[in-house]
Amino acid sequence: MSLRTAARFARRELRGGLSGFRIFLACLALGVAAISGVGSVRSAIEAGLTDQGAILLGGDAQVKLTYRFATDEELAWMDSVADRVSEVTDFRSMATVPREDGTDRALTQVKSVDDAYPLLGELVLDPAMPVSEALADRGGVMARVLADRLGLAPGDTFRLGDGVFTLRATIVTEPDDAGDGFGLGPRTIVATSDLEGSGLLAPGSLYETEYRLDLPDEADLDVVAADALGRFEENGMRWRDARRGAPGVARFIDRLGRFLVLVGLSGLAVGGIGVSAAVRAYLAQKTSVIATLRTLGATRQTIFLTYFLQIGALALLGIAMGLVLGAAVPLLFAPIIQDALPIPTVFTLYPAPLLEAALYGVLTAALFTLWPLARAEEVRAATLFRDALGSARVFPARRYVIATVLLLAVLVLAAALFSGSPELTLWTAGGILGSLILLSGAALLIRAAARGSTRAARGRPALRWALGSIGGPRESASAVVLSLGLGLAVLAAIGQIDGNLRTAIQRELPDRAPSYFFVDIQKDQMPGFLERVENDPAVSRVDGAPMMRGVITRINGRPAREVAGGHWVVRGDRGITYAAQPDSRTTVTAGTWWPEDYSGPPQVSFAAEEAEEIGLKLGDAITINILGRDIDATITSFREVDFSTAGIGFVLTMNPAAVEGAPHTFISTVYAEEDAEAAILRDVADAYPNITAIRIRDAIARVTELLESIGAAIRWGAAATLLTGFLVLIGAAAAGETARTYESAVLKTLGASRRRILQSFALRSALLGGAAGLVALAAGILGGWAIMTFVMEADFAVVWPNALAVVAGGVLATLVAGLIFAWRPLSVRPAAVLRASE
What we know:
By secondary structure, the protein is α+β, with helices and mostly antiparallel strands. It has 29 helices and 21 strands. Helix 8 runs parallel beside helix 14 and helix 10 runs antiparallel to helix 12.
């Protein structure tokens, strides 16, 4: 009976329109729109990768081999299962252009192809021509940025190693570029047959061979994959098919999308504060209505259900608005997004992200409206005519406290389930909850401090009025500090993380990283190479090591991935070196090194941190496939390896007798003064054209570009959170307009000027904004420290420019919101206001 009655009351209340609920609706709609919009774009990208997977991969399936070509047995198997097979090699080299005044050089990612390339898709060139024509007679094509950097035009010649090629065209669209992963240089494409004699594909050189397969329509990818891996996986063969045409891109988009959803949840939490404040303000306005209903015999349950149903209906409206916005905006801006992304996208209506966003919206609305609704139920009828909520106890009935805790647990559980990253979700939830607790305590302290500071403000009436208002019983300090503070805390944490990542990459680089990483140095070239770099006074350090690549296939007789799971060490091929004795910079943490002249069964020294992560111990046996040959080795020691310095670091170091006979090359890092880098590169490249030099500063610049794009996406997500906080600020300022009007009327009656009253309002806003900014800064720094220390395992230092910007933003935001709603109270006539309040 009470439900039917409450529904009738709620329906009548809704006839009053949306007055008082505009901020409520805006907060919910914006939070839901942000989450559903991010999810829709992610789904569009995933659909594009799935739909175009075969083109991105270059075939229905791909077999990849490390630093070798396929054997006759492997080629025969590929020919038996595929209608067509295309062989592609991928490696880095130096593109050089000799000129009268010197030689221009640039690092390039080379793709050498056969006559069948491309099996799928189209290589679009400028000027337009078939691939066969572009690559005929030692022709080549390259990315326009590389051609411009080298000053090349079609018809000009350039060198790769000892080979001379003619540029025929520049690349407009490369169909399989997204499936190739991250490259350190722009693309150059030549024919594999033309690389003979160039010295670039010599035994032991660093290259990968990919065989793209055009399978029959009836082929079962699962069956073909199982057959391939069953036959050749332990030979180092890696399999990929069109279902995961660009796995690196897919993983990146998925992880970035999940993180942005968590940032969106932070925005929804900020919106929840606005929702709670709006509900409380609305119920305060309904004092006479609730009092009348209680006087006429309405039960507590009826009162609760009346406003629960009304606010629930409005919440569903806000969520629906957010879903429409989140679905429509990606569709509306689809052409712009598609032009900006280098990967295919399929924009349409995706139900899954909309349902996920709707669930978050419902749980957030229920979580933040339950408490004020429950407190309203506890108010006695005798006090309702005075203050609907002011006389209610702080904590509602136990059942509502339990329901609140359960709603919070369900929200966190749903976020962990949908994000696919429970650890990151718990960190985010803990950060939000900790920030809310910190901000709530800060709001109480701010009010207490304001009350205690009024005496100290004697002689400064505007400041004293501002402090008195902040510490007063009706001041909205809590809503301001919570909403703006949480938004600023998210922005502060992201700013600190972004700044620390930039610091780690840019500021620490000159002191820690080498100038050049030289690869593909032949054994007989090492003496001449070392003579050049070690005798240069500008060179402070030279490191070198033999290098080959291998795949860990088995651990203690079991498949490596079964033992190590998805650990990066067993996901692909790894660099391997050998050494008779450890050098002075090697620290053995456990076990013993082999004797210098050891020639017994193969032994290996494993990187200590990675071994611990995998669960390896001394005496474990591992099988390493090097160039198709299995080597069974025993782990006899662990050692420290620091991969963060961009220097030489190997997970696996073996005794020389175990691998020295395998074809291999040497690598070297050179630490030199920046002014000497160009001369070193020129001399080495002139003497040994096959050697590839990777300038570490350029490589770091590529990584920095990637981080910048990630940071921009995250900052946009944080901006949405901050916008929600600003909307809550506007709601709090609007809710306090009546109080400001009465205050202005009283002060005018007592002789205060409009200028002095406006100063008081501005000071109040600035003080609250500054306080919220300082507390948010503390929470953001703490959150940034936790993420950098425990998640990214990196050093942390406060980035003060970002920190000060957060505090300044807090002051500016509250000042703007406060002044927007200050003009009307300043313009009222005191007599009319005071007469109406009698």
